[in-house]
């Protein structure tokens, strides 16, 4: 059961790039938030891979902090999403491009 | 164990691709939850059982369920779904795909070098001992981050 470490590292790279692709292409803010989660998860996989490579618990500790960050970020993102929907009745990220109150 | 890793890795990539190309947000989120469960299998096969458990309990179980509930609260109608489908169909994917492939070529180069055989299992005990002896300051910082997130979510979520 020896998996060479470049394989999971390449997998993490693939997840990160898929998240980046979603972030660049989608306009719906739900998908933007989900793409950010995919990218954070890819970072977590890379930490786990490094922990496996050197037999160090720091990889899993960093994974805990990544989850912590993802939870805080997602809670704020979802609250902002609800506010946007209540105010503009849309989830289009491009709709919120005015820095003033809409009547 | 190797077959398990490669199967889970391929299926996780597949479900992630499905997640970012769906037009219905709830379908996409459920695909992403499946992808996270496969990611937990990957963590387990990489010798990180504690990380695998956290991935299922905290990420797929708590964070993503919150996400799915809020998305269901948004009450999307058919018009919004059709508009979303039109947004996906437009040829906006070309330039991002080229950019991402260039970035992949740049970042994949260091993976091709270095020694390949190294596999260590990190037990939950080792994680706990390191976390609560050496990294106490980081734990405090994480709790402050969560508190800040809580206060900000409460402030933004108030009714005006």
Structure in a nutshell:
The complex is a heterodimer of chains A (103) and B (160). Helices cover 75% and strands 0% of the residues of chain A.
SS field, number of helical segments of chain A = 3
Q: How many strand units of chain A? A: 0
Major sheet of chain B: size, sense and barrel closure? Answer: none
Secondary structure tally, helices of chain B: 7
Low-confidence parts of chain B, pLDDT < 50 over ≥5 residues? Answer: none
- The sequence of SSEs of chain A as H and E is HHH
Distance between the termini of chain B: 55 Å
- Helix share, percent of chain A: over 70%
Shape by Cα distribution of chain A: elongated
Strand content of chain A: under 5%
Mean pLDDT of chain B: 86
Query: Given the C-alpha coordinates, what overall shape of chain B results?
Result: globular
Q: N- to C-terminal separation of chain A?
A: 62 Å
Sheet/helix structural class of chain B: mainly alpha
Output the structural class of chain A. mainly alpha
Helix content of chain B: over 70%
Q: Count the beta strands of chain B.
A: 0
- H/E series of chain B: HHHHHHH
Low-confidence stretches of chain A: none
The major sheet of chain A is characterized as:
none
């Amino acid at each position: 059961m020896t998996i060479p470490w470049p394989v999971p590292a390449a997998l993490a790279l693939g997840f990160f790039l898929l998240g980046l692709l979603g972030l660049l292409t989608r306009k719906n803010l739900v998908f933007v938030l989900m793409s950010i989660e995919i990218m954070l998860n890819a970072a977590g996989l890379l930490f786990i891979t490094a922990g496996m490579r050197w037999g160090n618990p720091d990889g899993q500790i960093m994974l805990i902090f990544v989850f912590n960050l993802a939870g805080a970020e997602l809670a704020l993102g979802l609250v902002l999403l609800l506010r946007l929907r209540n105010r503009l009745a849309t989830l289009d990220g491009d709709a919120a491009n005015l820095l003033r109150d809409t009547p | 164990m190797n077959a398990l890793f490669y199967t889970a890795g391929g299926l996780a990539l597949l479900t992630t691709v499905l997640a970012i190309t769906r037009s219905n947000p709830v379908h996409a989120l459920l695909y992403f939850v499946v992808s996270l469960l496969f990611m937990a299998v990957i963590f387990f096969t990489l010798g990180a059982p504690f990380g695998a458990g956290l991935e299922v309990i905290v990420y797929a179980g708590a964070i993503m369920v919150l996400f799915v509930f809020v998305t269901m609260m948004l009450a999307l109608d058919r018009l919004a779904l059709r508009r979303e489908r039109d947004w996906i169909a437009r040829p906006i994917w070309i330039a991002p795909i080229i950019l991402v492939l260039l970035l992949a070529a740049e970042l994949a180069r260091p993976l091709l070098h270095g020694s390949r055989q190294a596999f260590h299992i990190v037990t939950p005990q080792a994680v706990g001992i390191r976390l609560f002896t050496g990294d106490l300051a980081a734990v405090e910082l994480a709790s402050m981050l969560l508190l800040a997130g809580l206060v900000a979510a409460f402030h933004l979520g108030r009714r005006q």
